[in-house]
Structure formats: C-alpha cells, structure tokens
Write a structure and sequence with these properties.
The protein has a single domain, classed as Metal-dependent hydrolases (TIM Barrel). The chain contains 14 helices and 9 strands. The longest helix has about 35 residues. The N terminus is likely disordered. It binds 2-acetamido-2-deoxy-beta-D-glucopyranose (3 copies). It is a lipid-anchor; GPI-anchor. One of its GO terms (cellular component) is side of membrane. Its EC number is 3.4.13.19.
Length: about 425
C-alpha cells in the first residue's frame, strides 16, 4: 500500500502544483485580456497625431456651412470659367484680393473634409424682393460647380449617398439654404427647393422673416420666436425630410422649434454663449434642450465665436467652445460648421479649411478625446441626425402636403413692406 501510495502522492503533488501554476497563468491571461478589452478604442501608445489621423480616416469632417457659392456670385458673377477650383485660389485674382474667401479643393482635401453643406445664402436686403430668384441662382451655381468638378465633388441627397460619397473619397456635397427669406413665406417654394436637391434650410439669418425671429434683429419680435405659420413650415420640413437649421435663430425661436419639431435638428454654424456672449451663440438652456432632442451644434471658426476676447482669436478659443458644448450638451451633440467664405476673420491658425486637422489635434492633445469622440465630432453626429430626419419623413409619408398660405394679417403684424408684392393674400 505504502509503495503504491508514494508514487500516487507524488503524482498528486505534481498535479496540484501544475494545477496551481495553470490557474495562475490562466488568471493572468484573463486579467490582461480584460485590461485590453476595457481600454478605449485607442491603445495608450497612440500619439495625438495618430489618433487624429485614424479618426479622420474613419470619419472625415462633414462641414455644416460653407459660403463659397456666395463668393462665386460676389467675385465673378457666377461665371465658372473665371477660376479653377482645383488650384490654390488664394493665389488667383480676384480671390487673392478678397479677405472673405478661404476655400478651394486642395484646401478641403488637405483639411480632411469629406462632405460640405454648400450654403445658398441671400442677404436680408433681398427679402420681399428678389430673394427667391437670387436663391435659385445660388442653387444653380452650386449644382454647376459640383458637376464641373465631379472628380472631387458629388451631389448628395440622402444619408446613404452621403456615406457612399465619403467611402468613395469624393466630397459629399449637400445644398443648404442659409436664411428663411429665401422661401418668401411660401410652403410651396419650400417644397420646390426640396425637389431641386436642397436638404437643409435655416429659418433665419441676420433679419426676421415674417414667421421666425433672428437673434441679430431686435425689432418687432414675435412672442414665441416663431408664428403659427412658422410652425407649419417646421411641420412641412419634417414631412419632406429637410434638415432644420437653427443657426442665427433667436433663443425663443430656437426653443419653440426644438419643442415643435418631431425630427432632430442642427445649428449649422454656432458657438457657446458662456464662452463668448454673441447674440448668435447658444446659452445653456438651448444647449441642454438640443441634447434632449438629439440635435447637433456645429461650431464655427470665426469672429462671432472669438471677438469677445478683445484680441485675435485662436485655435484654442474654438476648442474651448467645442469642449464647453460637449460638456453642457453631450459628446453626441457637437459638430463642425466652419462658415468659411462667410467670414473675414477666421481664428489664427485656422485661416482656411486645410487647418481643420490642427483643431482636432488641439482636442486630442488634452487626452479627453478618444478616437470615437473625435469621429462623432467630425461627422458621425451629423450623419445620425440626417438619418433620423429621413426616418421621421418615412413615418410622416402618408401626410398630405400643407396647403396653408401666409395671410395679409401675418405680414402686417411683422410690418412687411409689401410694395414689391403682387400676389393676393387671404386677409386672415
Ligand atoms: C483645373 O486645372 C487642372 C490642372 O491644374 C486641370 O486638370 C483641370 O482640367 C482644370 N479644371 C477646370 C474646370 O478648368
Ligand atoms: C495659398 O495656400 C497654399 C496652400 O494652403 C499655401 O501653401 C500658400 O502659401 C498660400 N499662398 C498665399 C499667398 O497665401
Ligand atoms: C418694426 O419694423 C418696421 C419695419 O421694418 C420698423 O420701421 C420698426 O422700427 C420696427 N419696430 C421696432 C420696434 O423695431
């Protein structure tokens, strides 16, 4: 028995020791796997440069507002033969003479821009006059620009087409309307702009429309920021699948629209009021409601976010707006809407869209921005909003087009100059 139990005891000991070692090795392996699995998507060894490079490769920038089209009108009267968008326009007359132009194709490519909302913007002076034809000319020039440079630009009408353009390394090009005066208080005109490929409309810019208030215009304010007719315009935009843009809207107009719209919406070019108290910038109440409603605030890179500092603004100032909006709304509600070609003074070191990656680097260097966070900022948040706008459109598909027209009474309430109008309006 003894002779037999001895080897058995040895075997047992070996078995126990081996088992213990095996268990320890297994635990170490599990712990190591656990540590790596729970780490954020980026390994700690990635430099900020690598983080930005990976983020912008996975999701390039979707820029919420670019006013290049308005400069084609201002500088060359809509004649595309007068310049070559594939060259450095800052070195080509008359662009080289203008302080309000920053965009060309090489700079968009260098800036890792994957899509642009090309804004068709007409000024307040055209309101109740030739706003509609001026806007049509802007839509036309954007379409012709896209067609002429089809190796680099592609017209995009749906979220899926936007993703495909980005995948195919062409710049997804969306047409947006930069101010509500473009529709001349007509839901029919709004619908026809959609037919022409417009996918986003801002309710106002620097002046009120008869149905929505601007943050810049202080006269003749509507109590809730938008009128009853304005609510119908919002409903029709939801029905059509048009992205509502609240940049420049008054606080009341923004709050009312956020509450009334079924679909999430965007601020295509904006900033944080707490960082810079410009009337266009959003206070915390609005920032929090945008988060509740799943919208996105696309941060601009120019004076309105900067001039309150009393010194030339820097890339750090813009990063501060982005960080503040991230903290007050959430990481799901920030985006980029530079407003290039609509400004004379972008931030120092962000003088044209080729510098966008430096802004991302500024954020990545703080170590508070993971690759996933940077991708949300560059484009994923906007893409999410665009998709939900389309989902809402699909749900509302059975609704009839809205047939209501604005009344004489509503125009008079806003003291609209009707001297250039010949249309017959209902009294009430
Ligand atoms: C712009 O210039 C490039 C060469 O620099 C040329 O290949 C291209 O055809 C030009 N495009 C237009 C529209 O003139
Ligand atoms: C124009 O832009 C290019 C590319 O960003 C840059 O290399 C060049 O220095 C600029 N030229 C002038 C005159 O600013
Ligand atoms: C309201 O609008 C009219 C016409 O644009 C203007 O003359 C008037 O001054 C405005 N009222 C206020 C309080 O700003």
């Amino acid at each position: 028995m003894d002779r037999e139990s001895k080897p058995l005891g040895l075997k047992n000991t070996l078995f126990l020791v081996g088992g213990a070692i095996g268990t320890i090795v297994l635990m170490v392996v599990i712990i190591v796997i656990f540590i790596f699995a729970t780490k954020p998507d980026s390994s700690p060894s990635k430099t900020p440069e690598e983080l930005v490079d990976d983020a912008l490769s996975a999701m390039p920038i979707i820029d919420g507002r670019n006013l290049f089209a308005s400069n084609i009108r201002e500088l060359v009267f809509n004649d595309l033969s007068k310049f070559n968008f594939s060259t450095n326009l800052n070195e080509t007359y008359p662009w080289s003479e203008s302080s309000r132009t920053q965009t060309d194709l090489p700079k968009l490519r260098d800036g890792r821009v994957g899509a642009v909302f090309w804004s068709a913007l007409v000024g307040c002076q055209s309101q109740h006059k030739d706003a509609v034809s001026e806007t049509l000319e802007q839509v036309d020039i954007i379409q012709r620009l896209i067609h002429l440079y089809k190796e680099d630009l592609r017209l995009v009408l749906t979220a899926q087409e936007l993703e495909e353009a980005i995948e195919g390394k062409v710049i997804g090009s969306l047409i947006s309307i930069g101010a509500g005066q473009s529709i001349q208080s007509s839901i029919a005109v709004l619908r026809q702009f959609y037919q022409l490929g417009v996918r986003s409309v801002a309710l106002t810019q620097e002046c009120h429309t008869p149905w929505a208030d601007s943050s810049v215009d202080k006269g003749n304010i509507t109590s809730s920021g938008i009128s009853a007719f304005g609510e119908l315009i919002i409903e029709e935009m939801n029905r059509l699948g048009l992205v509502i843009d609240l940049s420049y809207a008054s606080k009341d107009a923004a709050l009312s629209t956020l509450k009334h719209s079924v679909a999430p919406l965007i601020f295509s070019t904006s900033g944080a009021h707490s960082i810079c108290p410009d009337p266009r910038n959003l206070d915390d109440e609005v920032l929090k409601l945008v988060a509740e409603k799943n919208g996105v605030i696309m941060v601009r890179v120019d004076a309105h976010n900067l001039e309150c500092a009393g010194r030339p603004g820097t890339i750090q100032d813009i990063a501060e707006h982005i960080d503040y909006i991230r903290t007050t709304s959430s990481i799901d509600n920030v985006g980029i809407g530079g407003n290039y070609d609509g400004t004379h003074n972008p931030a120092l070191d962000l003088e044209d869209p080729s510098k966008y990656p430096d802004l991302f680097l500024e954020l990545a260097t703080t170590q508070r921005w993971s690759q996933e966070d940077l991708e949300k900022l560059s484009g994923r948040n906007l893409l999410r909003v665009f998709k939900s706008v389309e989902q809402v459109r699909d749900i509302l598909m059975t609704r009839e087009p809205i047939q209501t027209t604005i009344t004489k009474h509503e125009l008079e309430q806003k003291r609209v100059d009707q001297s250039c109008m010949t249309a017959k309006y209902k009294e009430l």
